[in-house]
Amino acid sequence: MITRRHFAALAGAAFITGMSASAQAQNVTLRSTDIHPTDYPTVEAVRHMGKLLDERTKGRIKINVFHSAQLGQEKDTIDQTRFGVIDMNRINMAPFNNLIPATNIPSLPFIFRSVDHMRKVMDGAVGDNLLKDFEKHDLIGLAFYDSGSRSFYNSKKAINTPADMKGMKIRVQQSDMFVALVSALGANATPMPFGEVYSALQTGVIDGAENNWPSYESTRHFEVSKFYSMTEHSLSPEVLVMSKKSFDKFNAADQALIKAAAKESVAKMRELWDAREKASEAKVKAGGAQVNSIEKQPFIDAMKPVYDKFVTDPKLKEMVAAIQAVK
Question: Higher-confidence residue: 283 or 75?
Fold first, then answer.
């Protein structure tokens, strides 16, 4: 016999179940953040991912990309993503270096022989294993995007040898790895948020910085720092992560859709990136940037202290060997 109390309990359970099913069926718009401008390849790649999800879920899952650091600079948005305030984050590897030691390895100077080598590594077992490391820190690693080849630029002179950098004040990302890299070349590393670099170059607070062609061009750093020297010291990829709190709200089928769409967005990003690099290089040269090639070996030789400092754990040494073994 069903008592009035039992009936109330069953009704309540049915109501809760109905609410859960309704929540699962509701449209969800994920908030994704990026410091780059609206037309930047990484921004467009996440929008492409959103388009795929929109189509495959018939509008249930969408992505809204907040570009141009609308939600904060990279380092500031990491904790917001871990806590679920931000759902997704396209971020450079460097700000994760202190949190996730394995991210130091793809960030090592001259670890990759070429862009093709980097892509093969990050698309393979090394990359898959690294993505798994983010979960320990309340993040889901979704995919790796290109960050291009980073080179030094400054307002003083062309850099041809490490000796040319002695005493220069060079902006670096807020990462011990990049501080060590610049210090090994005899320059004074100055950690600084990306958004502050233009004014710091313009006012002489720093002499130079380092970045890829699209960033050098899109920020218009070439206007106040015209000497671009092709050290190509870093091919460190960037990573697209999702808050584990946000990810866990989806069922297994939707989680699989999210991961698949993220992986598929990589090809779109690379297509846009390759075209953007060429266009940015042409634009800064037309704008008066003085570009020079260098002999890389002296710079590579200077990196031994960096490797000695950051590759001490046996697992990290294995990771370096695994990267070097990829042909």
Answer: 283
Average pLDDT estimate for 206-221: 95
The per-residue pLDDT for range 42-72, each reduced to its tens digit, is: 999 999 999 999 999 999 999 999 999 999 9
Question: Model-level pTM?
Answer: 0.82
Question: What is the rounded distance in angstroms from the CA atom of residue 214 to the CA atom of residue 145?
Answer: 14
Torsion angle, alpha carbons of 158, 160, 164, 165, to 10? 80
- Minimal CA–CA distance to 212: which of 305, 302, 127, 115? 115
Q: Which two tokens stand for residue 11?
A: 């009704």
The first and second tokens of residue 292, run together, are 């020079």
Question: pLDDT (tens digit, 9 = 90+) per residue, 65-91?
Answer: 999 999 998 888 999 999 999 999 999
User: Which residues, other chains included, contact 100 with Cβ-Cβ below 8 Å and sequence gap of 6+?
Assistant: 133, 134, 136, 137
Higher-scoring residue by pLDDT: 24, 23: 24
Whether the Cβ atoms of residue 54 and residue 265 lie closer than 8 Å to each other = no
Cα(15)–Cα(21) distance, integer angstroms: 10
Check if the beta carbon of residue 80 is closer than 8 Å to that of residue 70: no
Alpha-carbon distance values, 217 to 67, 70, 280, 283, 285 (Å): 17, 20, 6, 7, 10
Sequence-distant (6+) residues with CB within 8 A of 313 are: 101
Owner of token pair 């904060």: 72
Q: Which residue has the higher pLDDT, 75 or 141?
A: 141
Sequential DSSP letters for 134-164? GGGGTEEEEEEE----EEEEESS----SGGG
User: How many Cβ atoms are within 10 Å of 272's Cβ, its own excluded?
Assistant: 20
Two tokens, residue 259: 């991961």
Strand partners, 62: 29
Rounded-to-integer distance, Cα 33 and Cα 88, Å: 6
Tens-digit pLDDT profile for residues 186-201: 999 999 988 899 999 9
Question: How far, in Å, CA of 129 to CA of 69, rounded?
Answer: 29
Q: How far apart are alpha carbons 14 and 6 in whole angstroms?
A: 12
Whether 113 and 10 have beta carbons less than 8 Å apart is answered as no
CA distance 306 to 327: 24
